[in-house]
Specification:
This protein is an alpha+beta fold. It has 5 helices and 8 strands; from the N terminus they run E-E-H-H-H-E-E-E-H-E-H-E-E.
Length: about 180
Amino acid sequence: MPLNETTLDGAVVFTTRRLTCRRWRRDDLPHVFAIYSDPEGARWVGNGTPITRADSERWMEVTASNYVERGYGMFAVESRETDSIVGFCGLVHPGGQTDAEIKYAYRRVDWGKGYASEIAPALIRYGDERFHLPRIIATVARENFASQRVLEKAGMSFIEAIEDEDGETLVFDWRA
């Protein structure tokens, strides 16, 4: 799917007290690359390897395709106070898995401000109310205690630990 203004239109998905969650726009590419290429932040994403600019461009194409096919995907998270991007969140299906999976990442300077704890329950509500998703999962590294707390506060429950090529991963879920 080619990137175009129709699919990457920046439309607002929902707002919270401090944040706006919106669809990606073409001009978000530098922010996607900046956040996901940061080695400290990337250690909690996928296999822990920072992504390249080319990976970021491909991810934008996948996201545009997800908007068309599913109606959701990754979203930009903006501060309502500054109108600046503080991070990204979304509902995705990595590797074509059946259940939607909640994902999020924030600029390192915005860690500890409670943005993930504010966005996660709103994102789950969005998936439930708008798309009637019966189950949403999340995967998190055993060592990522901050994300585990975010998921629990969002109403997700620990269901299992799995061992994979990235080490031990904890799986959480929410059910309608």
